[in-house]
Amino acid sequence: MEPLWDRKLVMVTGKGGVGKTTITAALVRRAAEAGRRVLAAEVSNDASTGSPLMQRLGRSELRGTEPVSLGLNIDGVRLVPSAGHRQFLQAALRVRVLVDAAMRSAALKRFLMAAPAFPEVGTLFQLVELLRRDTYDHVIIDLPATGHALGLASLPRTVLKVVPGGLIGNAIREGLDTMTDPQRSHAVLASLPEAMPVSETVELHRGLEKLGIRVGGLILNRLPLDPFTDAERDALDLHLAQGERRLMGSREFRRLDRARTARQRFLNEAPNGTPQLHLPEIGGDDQAVLEGVIRELGGPR
Amino acid sequence: MKLARHVRERRVIVVCGAGGVGKTTTSAALALAAARSGRRALVLTIDPARRLAQALGIPPTGKAPFDIPEERLLDAGVHLPPNGLLSAWMLDPRVVLESVVDRFAPSPEDAQAIRETRLYQALSEVMTGLQEYTAAEALYAFQEEGRYDLIVLDTPPSRNALDFLDAPRRLARFLDERTLAIFAPETAERAGAMIRAASKVVSTALAKTFGESFALELRQFLGAFGKLFNRMRVHASGVRELLQSDQAAFLVVTSPDEAALEEARYFQHRIGELGLRNEGFILNRSYASQDPVDAPKDRQDGHQDAVLVAALEKLIPLALTESEKLEAHRSLRSALEDESRAEGGEGAVALPYLDAAVESVEALDLLSTAILTAES
């Protein structure tokens, strides 16, 4: 299996709470340890709120919209709509005074943030601009939760329909070309061994491929350790069905059952040929979990 | 917190929370609890919760709310009183947007003109953002229609979920005549020097960034859409008034999961920021509500079956984990209780843990019973 981080653009996504951010941070660390120059990027609507990805990479806060060094081979950046808006105005107007005037215009600001899809266009523009710089071997990006990720991925085509040309149109075409080139980009989808997350991941996989985005890897995170043999499981099942009072531990036992079923579905229903990585449940705080996931990801090749 | 009171008295309940905490199921259970109390209840969801829809027999692409057939409920042993009704709709932003245009355009020709612009067509394709606009609109429309005693709104599982409260206002601000004047040079000519100067900067920026043709189309679109604006503004303030009144209640659903809790606290904060109040937290998927239990050790004695004895032995560490979680979840519930009270809310309620299929009428009924009896 090729390393999951081995593309110019790696987009990590999945349902909220599946450990997407930890997985992004682990891929960033692995790639950097392999001697690659990596940019860790996080999509957020508002630069003033805390940044979970940067926290895991050792930086409690990250302000501004330019990449900041987070350690050897690792830079971090937040993709914020207003940064992209400013950049495209800058590219269009060239004159700084005009850009400032335009960004001060309450009307324009309202328009850019209130019109549906325009915040995302800003994010995309900033991403394209960072990819153009060619400073990094890898841009690894923590995308928002599932529904939003599909919206973001389908956005370029929608926008191109209305804005075929101009600065925005061209930048978006460029972004779309990169995102849909399997040699340069792929998506990594994170999931949990529970019914709903598995269904959503399978759907997201199909959705992304329909949009021409290659899925480079599927990660089933937090798989609990199951100590029971089939015979023991059957015996316990029978026993639980008979007891009048609930048995302490039965809920955890059922959780193992659900995880086993979900894992099987993940193996059966996800498209063949997409590499799968199953990670065990790791205890401890954020940092301990991150170190554990890095170990599980295996050594760089 | 007495959930039963909200279910029996409010006209609107807005349910917020992270994805995967059982928000849609809880919303449906709240509506069912209202129906069981003899009210006509509608659950409005943006989440395409397909298995729940299947369980309730809702057709996948409905253009209007669907009344859950009485037989469906009776099959699961749920009897509604004579006036009770459970209705559900998976909100389709496209349908709502279309009805907004139809209802608000000054004439059918105007509606047609709006629908024909490429921008409108793109707008109805871009789902992000649109959901929030349409949720508020749908809520208001159903409220006005007066067919339901209670509408439960299940918000989308994103941090932006509450933008729908702000959306009409943002849209209204954006479609404000002065803003439009800046985009439309014809009106700007008649305006003051400030607006003329601003308009010039904006048109240069738009033409250069988007290309001349788009800038022109944008102006046409805004011109056409602007006509709808005044009536939409009335709606926007109507929604806010309704949600600020004591006819509406906000509830935040969470699971014991750290990520979900963080979202729940964010929603609590955001609701306050919008000048509203979170009535309380609903703690789902937790072990906090608990019946009497045996320990695996108690059951090992007297069993001849060596396999079962071995299995029970392996269950001991799981039982330990479970009882630790149980304690942790109980303290979590009381912590949420305190956090809610500190912000003027009513507390926190833990709903029962559902082992089996959550997406069934039976499970909904179980939850609705808990909702009608739960007290913190």
Q: Overview of this structure, please?
A:
The complex is a heterodimer of chains A (301) and B (376). Helices cover 52% and strands 17% of the residues of chain A. Chain A is an alpha/beta fold and 301 residues long. Chain A is elongated, with a radius of gyration of 22 Å. An eight-stranded mixed sheet of chain B has the order 3-4-2-5-1-6-7-9, sandwiched between helices. Chain B starts with a helix and ends with a helix.
Keywords:
heterodimer, A: 301 residues, alpha/beta, eight-stranded mixed β-sheet, 9 strands, 17% strand, elongated, B: 376 residues, 17 helices, 59% helix
Summarize the structure.
The complex is a heterodimer of chains A (301) and B (376). By secondary structure, chain A is α/β, with parallel strands linked by helices.
- How much helix, percentage-wise, in residues of chain B? 55-70%
Overall geometric form of chain B: elongated
Instruction: Tell me which protein chains meet in the greatest interface and how many residues each side has.
Output: A-B, 67 and 70 residues
Derived structural class of chain B: alpha/beta
The neighbouring-strand order within the major sheet of chain B is 3-4-2-5-1-6-7-9
So how many helices of chain A? Answer: 12
Class of secondary structure makeup of chain A: alpha/beta
Q: H/E series of chain A, N to C?
A: EHEHEEHHHHEHHEHEHEHEH
Distance between the termini of chain A: 10 Å
> What is the first-to-last residue Cα distance of chain B?
5 Å
Assembly form of the protein: heterodimer
Quantity of strands of chain B, as a count: 9
Order of helices and strands of chain B: HEHEHEHEHHHHEHHHHHEHEEHHEH
How big a fraction of the residues of chain B is strand? Answer: 5-15%
What is the makeup of the main sheet of chain B? 8 strands, mixed
Strand residue content of chain A: 15-25%
Low-pLDDT runs of chain A: none
Low-confidence region ranges of chain B: none
